[in-house]
Amino acid sequence: MHTIVKGKGQPLIIVPGWTGDSAFMAYCYEPMLKDSGFQRIYLDPPGHGGTTGYHNLENIDQYFQIMLEKIKKLTGGEPFAAMGFSMGAFMVRCLSMELQQQSMGFAMLAPVITLPYEQRILPELITLKDELQQETLSPLESMYMETPMRTRSLLQFLRAAPSPTFNEANIRLLDKLFLPENYRVSFDPDKDAEQYTRPVLCIAGKQDHVVGYQQAGQLCNRYPRATFAALDRAGHWLEEKKPIITALIQEWLTAIKDEL
C-alpha cells in the first residue's frame, strides 16, 4: 500500500477522501503539520493513488480489513493518532475504535458518518458568495466549486493541487465498491464510543451538502472527549476555513502530546 512519509516522531496516519490520494492530502495538510512533532504517514487506501492490486475486493468490510492490517504493520503495535477527510474520516474512526489500545486520538474533517446516502441528513446546496461568475470552469472544477463560498482563492488552491492518480483498475474497483449494496459496513464502529477516552476532533461544514453536519454532532455527543465544530460558510472542502481548522488541529495534537 503506497504511503508518503514526512518527518519523525509518533505516527500520525492521514487518510484521504473517496478518490483522493496521499499527494493531495500532503498538499492540503503538510503546511499545518510539518512542525507538529509527529511523523505524518499519508496513506493511499485500496483503489486510490499509488495503491493497486486489490481488484478482488467486493465491499467496504473487506476494504476496512485491508486498511486495518496495513495500520498494524505500519505502527508495529505502537501508539498512533489518525486523521481523515470525508470517507477517510469514516475509516480513521473505524480504525481507531478497532485499535483502541493503540489509538491516541483521531480527527475527522468533513466526515462521512453513515455510508448509505439515503441515511444522510443533508442541507441544500446554497451559494453565499460567488466570485467566479466570469470564470470559465472545466466540468471537474465546476463540480469541485459546488460550495457556498465560490471564491477565487479556493479555485486557485484547487488548480494548484496535484491531480489525483487514477488508473483503469482503480477506477473499476472504486466504482464496484461504491455500488449501494457494497458501500456499507456490517459492524457498528461506535459501539464502544462512550468508553473511548482519547481526544477526538470533528470539523464539519454547516453548508456541506455531501455529508452534512447534524449527524456528526450527534455522534460526537457519545465520545467523552470530542471537540465538535460546525463552521458556517463552509462546504465539504472546508478550505474556506483554513485558519480555524489549523488552530483546532494544533489544539487536538497538543492534547495528544500532553498524554504521551
Automatic annotation (TrEMBL):
<feature type="domain" description="AB hydrolase-1">
    <location>
        <begin position="11"/>
        <end position="238"/>
    </location>
</feature>
<dbReference type="InterPro" id="IPR050266">
    <property type="entry name" value="AB_hydrolase_sf"/>
</dbReference>
<dbReference type="InterPro" id="IPR000073">
    <property type="entry name" value="AB_hydrolase_1"/>
</dbReference>
<dbReference type="InterPro" id="IPR029058">
    <property type="entry name" value="AB_hydrolase_fold"/>
</dbReference>
<dbReference type="Pfam" id="PF00561">
    <property type="entry name" value="Abhydrolase_1"/>
</dbReference>
<dbReference type="GO" id="GO:0016746">
    <property type="term" value="F:acyltransferase activity"/>
</dbReference>
<keyword id="KW-0808">Transferase</keyword>
<dbReference type="GO" id="GO:0016787">
    <property type="term" value="F:hydrolase activity"/>
</dbReference>
<protein>
    <submittedName>
        <fullName>Putative hydrolase or acyltransferase (Alpha/beta hydrolase superfamily)</fullName>
    </submittedName>
</protein>
<keyword id="KW-0378">Hydrolase</keyword>
<keyword id="KW-0012">Acyltransferase</keyword>
